[in-house]
Amino acid sequence: MASIGLNSVWNPVTHPTIAQLVEPITDPVAVFLVIMAIMLVAPLLFERLRMPGIIGLILAGVIVGPYGLGVLERDSTIVLLGTVGLLFLMFLGGLETSLDDLKRNAGKAVTFGLLTFAIPMIFGTAVMLLLQYSFLASILVASCLASHTLVALPILARLGIMRAPSVTATLGGTIITNVLALLVLAVVVKANEGNLTLNFWLFLIPSLAIYTFATLWGVPKLGRWFFRQFGHDESAEFLFVLAALFVVSYIAGLIEIEPIVGAFLAGIAITQIIPQLSPLMNRIQFIGNTLFVPFFLISVGMLVDPLILVKEPRSILVAGVIVAAELASKFLAAWVPGKFFFKWPFPSTMVTFGLSVAQAASTLAAITVAFNIELVDELTVNGIIVMILVSCIASPWITERWGKQMKPEIPAATQQDQHQLGDRVLVPVANPNTEDNLLQLAIILAKGAGGTLLPFHILADQGGRIPAEAKIQQQQLLDAAVAIAHSAVANVEPIGRVDDSIDLGIVRAANERNASLVICGWKGYSTYRDNFFGSVLDNVVRLTTMPVLITRFPQPIENTQRVLLALSDVEESSPRYIQTLALAKTLAAELKAPLHLLDVSRSGQHKAKLDSAKQDDDISVEQLRGTLVGQVFKLLREGDLLMLIADTYRVGQPVMGRQPEAIARKQPETPMIIVHFPN
């Protein structure tokens, strides 16, 4: 069965009855102008009316569509852009879904997914049989009720509740119910054709399993290689993400799975290698939510004939039954697990209901196929379209109404210690080749804490005239840093300075601008001269009165697959340990990487039990006997970001101690962050 959905031009089954005042606009520029005007005006107008802007886009599609004023035709261009928007909508849902969150909430996701599929299937089949539909037709219409589209997803992101347990369970359940609903569609079509054979099952189930594994395992592997090779080309990174989205979606269609399922899986795969607060993630979300998703919502509205109930009186009964069955079954599917299984507060249950009640993508695919093979009639199609309109209007309203009563999840980055570190982050920028990773790290910390990024460049004053070329280069470096910060929507204050000493200039600027943290790059080793007389980095670390992150990134920071925090004889109550652990948790959360805490003791008698860390589901803890360097060598693996706390400085030693340098020399490809606290 070829996958049919929004990628096929919809053939209306009825003719518009509203008089066409003008001929549909055909000029491409005028068509795009009308759509842009709708995207601008409709959300703003409805938000003024205290209604979700999404509703405005759908109703605007009804008004300008072929069943409204006929200003625009739902031609192949609208269908194409709507399909891209639909895929982007599912892709954004996947980007907001952490595999670790899904693993932790796997039981809840499976439970909700099965219930939100089974209950609508039972309700839908029963009511359609009562309306004297055939058994196969009843099953197929019921599958339309079982699936759902995450139309209200942008609202959750805006409210800051994307990672709430109820939302994570709903996102995971979406995969289950949509896949099962589409499998029902495939089975019904084959049964109607008389081709429901063993070969069909032997192809579908293995291909789905292989496809899912290949996407979730292969795309991150390929992405990390691509970012490692071309990580400094922002355009190449963005185009790679788009290519991954559409390739995975297209392959899904080839194996008779709806492309929307592939788009969702692509998002889950890609999010493992893109930090949540990075400029690249911001570009993806901005373009998707601002341009492509509104196209999809407008195209859905253009399907609706508002006068269908007047033209076909029996449609009132069919549409009413379908809408009532869909709303009742979806509410029951959210309320039963929320009330009896998971003990969610009522607002969380309602958000789950609001998010899962919307119908569009899979529903349109299923009913289109059913009508084309003459399994259902025009009245059923019209009833389904009415259900789409009602559910797409109800979904964002319910989600926003009850989502405001949920408490936004407070990540580690907003804890008090992390607020202090990320309040004002100063980053000296001098080398364009290493600037990206330092700024990415600074943006994660500053933006996560609601702070400000301070990119800094210094020109050495040797008592003579500073060349104009040096001033131009300074401005170019600062402008590039500002552009990166703006692309991530981070607060930024560039600092250009002329000073007689580079190291003292950095220290003075940090003090003058009230920096809370300084991030410096490190080559990974020091010479004997550096140890005794001090390099620029050594002097900065020794003289600053605020914490310093000494960093080395031989690979892009987004390639991090695990954060390894290695400590020796740690004091659990030590402020250094508390702040470093909060920092490690923040990085692990934003980099979508697990956090592993290693506590090494020479005697085997550990100073701290690390009970708080052991009770945290996001942290795995290992306490071993031996030397820190030796145990780190045993545990390090490809894709690790190693974090250490700097030792107390002694004359003749590297400023951060012997251990980090010993590791850096033997593991030159391992990214490292050494946290130095002032004495």
Structural overview:
The chain is an alpha/beta fold and 679 residues long. It folds into three domains: 296 residues, Up-down Bundle (Na+/H+ antiporter like fold); 106 residues, Rossmann fold; 126 residues, Rossmann fold, CATH 3.40.50.620. 60% of the residues lie in helices and 9% in strands. The chain contains 27 helices and eleven strands. Strands 1, 2, 3, 4, 5, 6, 7, 8, 9, 10 and 11 form an eleven-stranded mixed β-sheet that branches. α16 runs antiparallel to α17 and α26 runs parallel beside α27. The N terminus is likely disordered.
Task: Reconstruct the topology from this structure.
Elements: H1 28-48, H2 53-64, H3 76-95, H4 99-104, H5 106-130, H6 135-146, H7 153-159, H8 165-193, H9 198-230, H10 234-254, H11 259-270, H12 279-301, H13 308-311, H14 313-341, H15 346-357, H16 361-372, H17 378-403, H18 416-422, E1 424-428, H19 432-448, E2 452-460, H20 468-487, E3 491-492, E4 495-499, H21 502-512, E5 517-521, H22 528-533, H23 536-543, E6 548-552, E7 562-568, H24 575-590, E8 595-601, H25 611-614, E9 619-625, H26 628-635, E10 640-645, H27 658-666, E11 672-676
Parallel strand pairs: 1-2, 1-5, 2-3, 2-4, 5-6, 7-8, 7-10, 8-9, 10-11
Antiparallel strand pairs: 6-11
Helix pairs in contact: 1-2, 2-12, 3-11, 3-12, 5-6, 5-8, 5-14, 6-8, 6-16, 7-17, 8-15, 8-16, 9-10, 9-11, 10-11, 12-20, 14-15, 14-17, 15-17, 16-17, 18-19, 19-20, 19-24, 21-23, 26-27
